[in-house]
Amino acid sequence: MEVEAMGVAENIKRLRTERDLTQEEFGKIADVSAMAVSQWENGRAVPRMGAVQRIADYFGIKASNIIDDDSPRLPNARPAVGMAMGLAPRLGKVHAGVLAEPDVYDEATMVSIPQFLVDEDPDCFVVSSEGDCMDKVFSPGSDLVVSRKKRPRDNSIVMASVDGCDYIVRRLRMTANTMILSPESHNPAHEDIIITRDSEHTLEIPGVITWYQAPREME
Question: What residue spans of the chain are helical by DSSP H?
Answer without folding.
Answer: 2-18, 23-30, 34-41, 49-59, 63-67, 115-120
